[in-house]
Design brief:
CATH topology of the largest domain: Amidase signature (AS) enzymes
Helix content: 40-55%
Structural class: alpha/beta
Radius of gyration: 26 Å
Bound molecules: the ligand CCCCCC/C=C\CCCCCCCC(=O)NCCO
Number of domains: 2
CATH superfamily of the largest domain: Amidase signature (AS) domain
Number of strands: 13
CATH architecture of the largest domain: Alpha-Beta Complex
Distance between the termini: 67 Å
Shape: globular
Number of helices: 23
Strand order of the largest sheet: 1-3-2-6-8-7-12-13-11-9-10
CATH class of the largest domain: Alpha Beta
C-alpha cells in the first residue's frame, strides 16, 4: 500500500513538473527579452556557485597546507634540537620507578629525559605517523623544572603525550577537520593543568581519526597512523596516536578520550594499558567533542600507559584534590589509596560472549587465562551471563548507538561540508542520509538473517520527534538499572570480558566492522569504569583453531569480515577489560594490578 501511494505521488509530481516546464517555455517564447535576462541571471547564478565551490576548496586546501607546514616546522625544530642526542633508548627503556628515582636524585635532568623521549617519539612517528606535532613549550618547562629547588612532585620531569582533541594553550584542536583549524585554545585543559602541577611535561600531540568516530586513523590534515606491531593493521581509534606512540615505545604515558571504546580499543590493539573512568570523575574541560549537547551519551578523558605502574602513577596524579578545585563540576573524589591497597578476595564475573559477536579463539583464550590468573591470586571467578541472556547487552548497546547518532550525524555532515572526508567516517555519513523508510525496511528484512547488521540500520533512522528521542533515552536508563540489578544480584565486585571479538583488523577492513566495538560500548552505555590489560599474543594454535570450523564458525557478515582480517595476525597482542561499578576506579586498578602480577607482567 505504501509503495502504491509513493508511486502515485511520484506520478503526480512528474505531471506537475511537466506543466510548469511547458508554461515556462510558452512564457519565454512570448517575452524573448525577459527570457534572455532570466537565462543570463540563471547562468550567472550557476557559474557563481561553481566559482564559489572551487574558491572554498582552494581556501580550505590552503588552510590545511598552512597548518601542516606549521606542524612540520615544529617537528623540524625539535628534530634538529635532539639530533645530537645518543643512546636515548637507554633512558626511554627505563622503568617508571627507575626514571622517577633518577629524576628525583638528580642523576638525570628533566631536560635529558625530555630530549630522549622527543628523539624516540619522532623516530617512532617517522615510521607510523602517530605524532601530529611536538609541544614546543616542553623545553622551557624542563628548563624551569631543572632550575627549581622545589620538592619533587609525583610526575616530576616525566614526559606525557596528549591526544589532539585535548586543549594545550596556543594550539588548535582539530580532530582532523578543516573547520576547527585555527581555533586556538587560550588555556590548557584542566587535566593538562593538573598534570603540569605534578611536574609532568606534556611533550607531544598525537593523531586521531577525522571526527573521532572511527577505529581507524586517517584524516586529511595529519594523514594515516599505522599500528606499531604490524603496519597493515589498524592501531584502533580514536586515541590512535596515543596507543601507537606508547605501544611503539615513544612515550611512557598519555591522555586519550573514549565515548565508544576510544581508549580501550587502541590500548588493546597496541598492547598497552588504559583506564576508561566513570563519566564525571575526571574533568572534561578543554576536550573537543562533537556530542556535547547529548547528555545521555558522554565522552570521558582517561589515562593510557606502557605498563601498569605507569598507569597507576598517572591515574593517581590525575585524581588529585586540585582537579576539583580547578573544575568544581568534578566531584571531590581524590584517589583513595586505602581502597586500592585492600587485599580481600573478590568475586569477579566473566564472559566470553555478549550475544552479539562471537569472539575468536585467541580472544576467548585471553579471558580464560585472565580468569585462571585471578583465581590463582585467590579470587572467585564466576560466569556472568547477563549480557548474553535475552540479548540484554545487545539491547542496551542498540539504545546507546541509536542515541549516540540521534541526529543521523547531521552535525558532522555540516562541519565537513567544505572538507575532504576520510574513509573512516564517510560510510556512516552516507548511511545517515538514506531515507528513513529505507533504513527501517533494511532493519526489518536484514533482521531475519543478521541481527547485528540490522541494528546499524536501526540506529541510522534517527528520531521523528522529541518524544521518540526521550523514550529511547528512557529505554537506555531502564537498561542501566537492569544491568545494575543483575550485577548486584550476583554480588559481583568486578567483571572481566573481551575488549574486541578479534585481533586488530587490517586497515582495509576495519571501517566495515565498526559495530565490533560493542564489547566496549556496553560500559559506555552503563557508565562503568573499564580498564584494559594486555594478556596474551595470538599463537599459531589460535589461528589453526580460528580457521577450523570445529572450533569457530562465523555466522554474520561482520564475523566473516573479521575472520578474513585475522589471517596473519600471529604475535598480535590481545587484552581483556576489567570492569567495576561506577566511581570504583581504585578497585578496577586493583583487579588490573592482580591480573598483571599473576600474569608475571609487572614492570
Ligand atoms: C547515521 C549513522 C549510523 C551509524 C551507526 C553506527 C553506530 C554507531 C557508530 C559508533 C561508533 C563509535 C566510535 C566511538 C569512538 C570513540 O570512542 N570516540 C571517542 C571520542 O572522544
Amino acid at each position: 500500500m505504501i509503495i502504491a501511494a509513493k508511486t502515485h505521488l511520484c506520478k503526480m509530481m512528474l505531471v506537475a513538473y511537466q506543466n510548469v516546464a511547458a508554461d515556462t517555455v510558452r512564457f519565454l517564447r512570448g517575452h524573448p527579452r525577459t527570457g534572455s535576462v532570466i537565462i543570463s541571471l540563471a547562468g550567472a547564478g550557476v557559474l557563481g556557485k561553481v566559482v564559489l565551490y572551487f574558491w572554498y576548496r582552494h581556501l580550505s586546501n590552503k588552510k590545511r597546507q598552512d597548518r601542516q607546514q606549521k606542524a612540520k616546522a615544529n617537528i623540524n625544530e625539535v628534530a634538529e634540537n635532539v639530533a645530537e642526542i645518543t643512546e636515548s633508548d637507554l633512558i626511554v627503556k627505563k622503568s617508571i620507578q627507575e626514571l622517577r628515582q633518577a629524576l628525583c636524585n638528580g642523576s638525570l635532568s628533566a631536560m635529558e629525559v625530555l630530549m630522549a623521549f622527543q628523539k624516540e617519539a619522532l623516530k617512532v612517528s617517522k615510521d607510523i605517523n602517530c605524532v601530529t606535532e611536538p609541544i614546543i613549550e616542553a623545553q622551557e618547562m624542563a628548563r624551569s623544572l631543572d632550575a627549581s629547588q622545589e620538592v619533587k612532585r609525583l610526575l616530576h620531569g616525566i614526559p606525557v603525550s596528549i591526544k589532539e582533541n585535548i586543549a594545550i594553550a596556543g594550539y588548535d584542536q582539530t580532530a582532523g577537520m578543516e573547520v576547527h583549524i585555527g581555533n586556538i585554545a587560550r588555556e590548557d585543559a584542566v587535566l593538562v593543568q593538573v598534570l603540569k602541577d605534578h611536574g609532568a611535561i606534556p611533550f607531544m600531540r598525537t593523531n586521531i581519526p577525522q571526527t573521532m568516530l572511527s577505529y581507524d586513523c586517517t584524516n586529511p590534515l595529519y594523514g594515516t597512523t599505522f599500528n606499531p606491531l604490524d603496519w597493515s593493521r589498524t592501531p584502533g581509534g580514536s586515541s590512535t596516536g596515543e596507543g601507537a606512540l606508547i605501544g611503539g615505545g615513544g612515550s611512557i604515558m598519555g591522555i586519550g578520550s573514549d565515548i565508544g571504546g576510544s581508549l580501550r580499543i587502541p590500548a588493546d590493539f597496541c598492547g598497552i594499558f588504559t583506564l576508561k573512568p566513570t563519566w564525571g570523575r575526571i574533568s572534561r574541560k578543554g576536550m573537543l567533542t562533537h556530542s556535547k549537547g547529548n547528555l545521555s551519551v558522554r565522552p570521558v578523558i582517561g589515562p593510557m600507559a606502557r605498563d601498569f605502574d605507569s598507569l597507576l602513577l598517572l591515574t593517581q596524579a590525575i585524581l588529585s584534590p586540585n582537579m576539583s578545585e580547578l573544575d568544581p563540576l568534578v566531584p571531590p573524589l581524590p584517589f583513595d589509596v586505602k581502597e586500592y591497597e585492600k587485599t580481600s578476595p573478590l568475586r569477579i564475573g566473566f564472559y566470553t560472549y555478549d550475544g552479539t559477536f562471537q569472539c575468536q579463539p585467541p580472544n576467548v583464550r585471553a579471558v580464560m587465562e585472565a580468569k585462571a590468573a585471578l583465581e590463582a591470586m585467590g579470587h572467585e571467578v564466576v560466569h556472568f551471563d547477563f549480557p548474553t541472556i535475552m540479548g540484554e547487552g545487545f539491547q542496551g548497546c542498540k539504545y546507546y548507538a541509536h542515541v549516540l547518532v540521534a541526529d543521523r550525524l547531521a552535525k558532522l555532515r555540516r562541519l565537513l561540508a567544505n572538507d575532504k572526508v576520510s574513509s573512516g567516517i564517510s560510510m556512516n555519513l552516507k548511511l545517515g542520509q538514506l531515507p528513513v523508510w529505507l533504513c527501517k525496511a533494511a532493519e526489518f528484512i536484514i533482521g531475519f538473517k543478521d541481527h547485528m547488521l540490522a541494528s546499524v540500520f536501526g540506529a541510522a533512522v534517527g528520531f521523528r520527534s522529541v518524544e521518540e528521542f526521550l523514550d529511547k533515552v528512557q529505554d537506555l536508563e531502564d537498561f542501566r538499572q537492569r544491568f545494575l540489578d543483575a550485577w548486584l544480584h550476583m554480588a559481583l565486585d568486578a567483571v572481566i570480558c573481551p575488549v574486541f571479538p578479534s585481533p586488530a583488523p587490517t586497515r582495509d577492513l576495519v571501517n566495515m566492522v565498526t559495530p565490533a566495538g560493542i564489547y566496549c560500548w556496553l560500559y559506555n552505555a552503563v557508565n562503568y569504569p573499564a580498564g584494559v590489560v594486555p594478556v596474551t599474543q595470538v599463537t599459531k594454535e589460535d589461528l589453526d583453531k580460528t580457521f577450523d570450523p570445529k572450533h569457530y564458525q562465523p555466522c554474520t557478515m561482520y564475523e566473516k569480515i573479521l575472520l578474513k582480517s585475522t589471517k596473519g595476525s600471529e604475535g598480535h597482542s590481545i587484552g581483556v577489560q576489567c570492569v567495576t561499578l561506577p566511581y570504583k576506579e581504585e578497585l578496577c586498578l586493583r583487579v588490573m594490578k592482580d591480573l598483571t602480577q599473576a600474569l608475571g607482567k609487572q614492570s
